[in-house]
Specification:
Keywords: ATP-binding, DNA-binding, Helicase, Hydrolase, Isomerase, Nucleotide-binding. About 5% of the residues have low confidence. Helix 11 links the parallel strand 6 and strand 7. About 45% of the residues lie in helices and about 15% in strands. It has 5 domains: about 180 residues, P-loop containing nucleotide triphosphate hydrolases (Rossmann fold); about 80 residues, Orthogonal Bundle (Arc Repressor Mutant, subunit A); about 180 residues, 3-Layer(aba) Sandwich (Rossmann fold), CATH 3.40.50.300; about 150 residues, Orthogonal Bundle (PCRA, domain 4); about 80 residues, SH3 type barrels. Strands 13-14-12-15-16-11-19 form a 7-stranded parallel sheet. Strands 3-2-6-7-1-8 form a 6-stranded parallel sheet, with helices on both faces. It contains 27 helices and 24 strands. The termini are far apart. The chain is an alpha/beta fold. About 45% of the residues are buried. The chain binds adenosine-5'-triphosphate (ATP) and magnesium ion (MG). Adenosine-5'-triphosphate (ATP) binds next to helix 2. Magnesium ion binds next to helix 2.
Length: about 750
């Protein structure tokens, strides 16, 4: 019971109070997540079966971390806990039960790109004005409705739930919504919101299923409860209705997802639903210095809508909050980069101790440039992730279509990629036929020759045959073997391979990287299901905050404030503290919006443990124009006793750094070598490459990297990697089943 010693009195009380409904609404850094973690550990110690505990977190990463901590207390049993985001836990349940609500168990999960493309297509098919019916706007409306559990029928019936401008400006949103749902259903696909919407449908229409899960989840816990929407609220309420062992933790002052339907009334509803509720208050912040906590308090007290809390810290007083003023966004980047470098050197820190937070992803560019110039390594969380790249989406579409032939978005993406003579008109024809006859596009595709599609018919037929053969492979092999097979036989690899530009090579390497990721998935002892559908589900459910690439070394973390929720860093920089940027221009028209923006600032401040720095620029490029900018009102809301202004003209320590004659270079990792061998022309034909006897020391040739020597072979399971030092290019790790290599005598 050592873990109980790691808690203060109120935290301990909340941990020990395992039975019945319980709510902890408490300030930032007060140990809410810690309480949840040890509460679960405590339940397990008391003998509760891990299979009976459900814990819902904000990101999959948070779940993983929590599981790790619990494992330290109770051992490997922690693996059996149900943990993850709402979307990942409930998609797992939907997989098992999908057929009950008319979906295939291998349903596809549409990401927001798929959803928007589908909407764009529907708008086109309906001959509507695409400037009025922008995919973003339409998807926003559809998503808003689903999060409130409003069905298409209800939406069409009840004009009062439509937004103000709809009747006049966009009267067809309801119709688009209807077609969109029909098309998703026909494609055997659910979008993100459907995962929650359909879980509610499942539990509403199938009492036996609901009972089953009520009996499984004897204890339900939700972190970041302030950011749940109505649909999530209802799911947890239904699940907990039998045993009423539900514990939610959150902080109303950190509610930042109203735009996605998060609803603060869920906290009030909770009190109404469970009159026997035990409420715990935590007020001591363990994360931050006193100055940081006080600065945060002075900001949030400007909000009218909030539950009263007195958050205090008994940590050291700490540094004042630095405020950096720069003359431009580029200078801001430079000053921040220098401040990071300076602080790291003076305090003997690691780059891992630093985070740069911004309001929108677009702000990362100037920061990245500055960091790169200083050779400070950084990693961006979220943003355009690996899985959104074109070539990756192409291969994933092949994988998806092999698993679910009805997947319309996947099919449209690759039916003529690589080119196989199925032109746009043919594709249009297929879609019209599918819509007119109420079939899925695949059903039309697989009967193309009967439908008299002419010459294209043959190509379509071949395509269908290919996909069917992929399905067979996917059924028999693990995710890695299946994906490698599909990558090769789809023609995609050859197509990328034929592109000899630097970008082409990068795309080719990305495909390799995806296969590496699948290999890792298959080799992960924690994954029970190694099949292709399991892998696809895994990646479909990554949240923005999950897309951090795990790389060796020390990196400064960069991300939006939204993604930083729940995290903590020793040193935090909040950049772009300017009017119209933060608070965002779009959030200035109502008090509610402005208060949400202020809560976002509160979240940002409270991520810092020891030191907080705010920065702003007096001019900035936005949409290609240089604009003058003004310091954010939020800076002025902080009690000036806690601030230390560092103006551009009295830079002091900065000046010294800026003038330093690059001693910095000694810390620099050498610039990346080019990835294409310089002045190299292939000496041979690479098609029949036999690498079965490849060994360290052998000399090889690669059509892009040129000549090299094998330094190491690495076999794991049935996959072998060769580590090769290429002349003029450097070391590369290649998967043998995939690499085109010619072996020369050593
Ligand atoms: N009783 C305690 N003794 C020492 N450290 C603690 C204690 N409680 C919490 N902490 C530490 O304080 C930090 C903040 O805790 P935690 O992340 O659980 O807070 P939180 O309330 O979930 O914060 P947020 O509102 O940002 O989600 C963590 O580093 C945690 O380990
Ligand atoms: Mg937390």
């Amino acid at each position: 019971m050592d873990y109980l010693k790691l808690l203060n009195e109120s935290q301990r009380a909340a941990v020990l109070n395992t039975e019945g409904p319980c709510m902890i609404i408490a300030g930032a850094g007060s140990g809410k997540t810690r309480v949840l973690t040890y509460r679960i550990a405590h339940l397990l110690e008391k003998g509760v079966d891990p299979f009976n505990i459900l814990s819902l977190t904000f990101t999959n990463r948070a779940a993983k971390e929590m599981r790790g901590r619990i494992e330290k207390v109770v051992g490997p049993e922690a693996k059996n806990l149900w943990m993850g985001t709402f979307h990942s836990v409930f998609s797992r349940i939907l997989r098992a039960e999908a057929t009950k609500i008319g979906y295939p168990s291998h349903f596809t999960i549409y990401d927001s790109d798929d959803s928007k493309t589908l909407i764009r297509n529907i708008v086109k098919e309906m001959n509507l004005d695409d400037k009025l019916y922008k995919p973003n706007v339409v998807l926003g409306r559809i998503s808003g409705a689903k999060n409130k559990l409003i069905s298409v029928a209800q939406y069409l019936r009840d004009a009062s739930i439509q937004a103000d401008d709809e009747a006049a400006l966009r009267p067809k949103i309801g119709q688009i919504f209807k077609t969109y749902q029909e098309r998703c259903f026909k494609a055997g696909a659910m979008d993100f919101d459907d995962l929650l919407f359909n879980t509610n449908v499942l539990f509403r229409d199938h009492v036996d299923v609901l009972n089953k899960y009520q009996n499984i989840f004897k204890y339900v816990m939700v972190d970041e409860y302030q950011d749940t929407n109505y649909s999530q609220y209802l799911i947890t309420r239904k699940l907990a209705a039998k045993d009423r062992n539900i514990c939610v933790v959150g902080d109303d002052a950190q509610s930042i997802y109203a735009f996605r339907g998060a609803d603060i009334t869920n906290i009030l509803n909770f009190e109404r639903d469970y009159p026997e509720l035990a409420v715990f208050k935590l007020e001591q912040n363990y994360r931050s210095t006193q100055h940081i906590v006080k600065a945060a308090n002075s900001v949030i007290k400007n909000n009218k809508a909030q539950l009263r809390k007195d958050v205090f810290s008994e940590n050291e007083e700490g540094n004042l909050v630095d405020v950096i003023k720069a003359s431009s966004d580029n200078e801001e980047g430079k000053l921040v980069a220098h401040a990071i470098f300076e602080e790291k050197m003076n305090q003997h820190l690691s780059y891992e101790d630093f985070a740069i937070l911004y309001r929108t992803n677009a702000q990362s560019r100037a920061m990245e440039e500055a960091l790169r110039k200083m050779n400070i390594k950084y990693r961006i969380v979220g943003g355009l992730s690996f899985y959104q790249r074109k070539e990756i989406k192409d291969l994933i579409s092949y994988l998806r279509l092999s698993i679910n032939h009805n997947d319309e978005q996947a099919l449209r993406r690759i039916i003529n990629y690589p080119k196989r003579g199925i032109g746009d008109t043919t594709v249009e024809k297929l879609i019209v036929t599918a819509n007119d006859t109420n079939h899925s596009i695949w059903e039309v595709v697989s009967h193309a020759t009967q439908l008299g599609m002419g010459r294209a018919g043959v190509a379509i037929d071949e395509f269908a045959t290919k996909i069917k053969s992929f399905a067979v492979v996917a059924q028999q092999k693990d995710a890695f073997e299946a994906a490698t097979y599909i990558a090769k036989h789809s023609g995609l690899v050859d197509d990328l391979y034929a592109d000899k530009t630097v970008e082409g090579l990068a795309r080719y390497e990305n495909i390799q990287e995806l296969l590496n990721a699948i290999k890792e998935f298959v080799d992960d002892p924690e994954k029970e299901d190694k099949s292709l559908p399991a892998f696809l589900q895994d990646i479909a459910l990554l949240t923005d905050a999950d897309t951090k690439k795990e790389e060796e070394g020390e990196y400064v973390t960069m991300m939006t404030i939204h993604s930083a929720k729940g995290l903590e860093f020793r040193n935090v920089f909040i950049v772009g503290m300017e009017e119209n940027l933060f608070p965002s221009q779009m959030m200035l028209s109502s008090r509610a919006d402005l208060e949400e923006e202020r809560r976002l600032f509160y979240v940002a401040i409270t991520r810092a443990e020891k030191k907080l720095t705010l920065s702003y620029a007096t001019s900035r490029y936005q949409w290609g124009n240089l604009r003058s900018a003004e310091k954010s009102r939020f800076v002025d809301e902080i009690d000036p006793t806690y601030l230390n202004f560092k103006f551009g003209d009295e830079r002091g320590p900065f000046e010294k750094v800026l003038q330093r004659k690059t001693p910095v270079s000694q810390l620099i990792t050498p610039a990346k070598k080019p990835t294409v061998a310089p002045n190299y022309t292939p000496s041979a034909d690479f098609t029949p490459s036999d690498t079965s006897n490849l060994q360290a020391g052998m000399r090889v040739e690669h059509p892009k990297f040129g000549f090299g020597t094998v330094t190491k072979m690495d076999t794991q399971g049935n996959s072998t990697k060769a580590i090769i030092e290429f002349e003029g290019v450097g070391e590369k790790t290649l998967l043998l089943s995939f690499a085109k290599l010619k072996v020369h005598a050593s």
